[in-house]
Amino acid sequence: MPVSIRPLHDLFVGEVSGIDIAKPLTPDEVTALETGMDRYAVLVFHGQALSDEQQMAFSRNFGPLEDARGGNVTKPGDKRLGTGMNDVSNLGKDGKPLARDSRQRLFNLGNSLWHSDSSFRATPAKYSLLSARIVNKKGGNTEFADMRAAYDTLDDEVKREIEDLICEHSLMYSRGSLGFLDYTDEEKQMFKPVRQRLVRTHPVTGRKSLYLSSHAGGIVGMPMPEARLLLRDLNEHATQPKFVYAHKWTLHDLVIWDNRQTMHRVRRYDESQPRDMRRTTVAGDAPTVAQQAAE
């Protein structure tokens, strides 16, 4: 049975059938999925009961995995998952929900803000793949926003204004907006701001998109209040309901999204109940400034 993709939204997001991603893929299947990602930016797979090793193997079809270090405040001895896996659950190493005042939990609440994974890294991520191992009965949806459509609907004057702007991204910006301000010297060094273009061009389709994220806290050469007001206005524009798809998780769903073309956020849920979500991240290939300069 060949790979089939059914649209789930007027602008983006496709539901994939006709493939078992727990098994090795054929070259034709990989090509079909990559073509689907270029078109839909978000692909949804149902009924994919994966081990961590199978999820990592599937992810590597699209490129090398990103080094997960430097993306959280969890101490190495407290990590629940092995190398190659990003833990975006609400669980501690003991498998129980984190305490309400847990520093790890408070930091991870930043995932509820609109963001693009790893925009705080000099070379940001390509794809993210999230597997649902334990799903909450209520809440916990993940929302996605189509940043291509958001760019397309800006007026020409705004497009000219933002075309060459460079933003500064840091986890300290996103977490600071929630009042998380206490960092060690090592963390401050690890979370130093990096520069990213505000407008990105997709390397295959040539389509432009806004590259926004809660990690973006400043614009090079622009006074901070002015920069943050512009970023706020653009975020409000980009997350209008017409640009957003909400995914309601069911057990063993896997969703893959293109961080170069979308933003996402998780919605609130009952954190007294376990939510086990495991992410693999496909690394990007160059800083956004370098990508733009090479065109």
General description of the model:
The structure is a single chain. With 295 residues, this protein is α+β, with helices and mostly antiparallel strands. It has one domain (4-293): 4-Layer Sandwich (Double-stranded beta-helix). Helix content is 25%, strand content 22%. The chain contains nine helices and 15 strands. The strands form four sheets. The protein has a seven-stranded mixed β-sheet, covered by helices on one side. Strands 12-6-14 form a three-stranded antiparallel β-sheet. It has a three-stranded antiparallel β-sheet with strand order 8-7-11. The mean pLDDT is 95.
Q: Indicate the CATH architecture.
A: 4-Layer Sandwich
By CATH reckoning, the class would read Alpha Beta
Low-confidence stretches: none
Widest sheet: strand ordering: 1-2-3-13-5-15-4
**Cα end-to-end separation:** 39 Å
CATH homolog superfamily: Clavaminate synthase-like
Task: Tell me the β content.
Answer: 15-25%
Given helix and strand content, the structural type is: alpha+beta
Round the mean pLDDT to the nearest integer and report it. 95
What is the CATH fold-level name?
Answer: Double-stranded beta-helix
Q: Quickly count the domains.
A: 1
In helices, the fraction of residues equals 25-40%
The oligomeric status of these chains comes to: single chain
The tally of helices reads 9
Rg estimate, integer Å = 18 Å
* String of helices and strands: EEHEHEHEEHHEHHEEEEHEEEEH
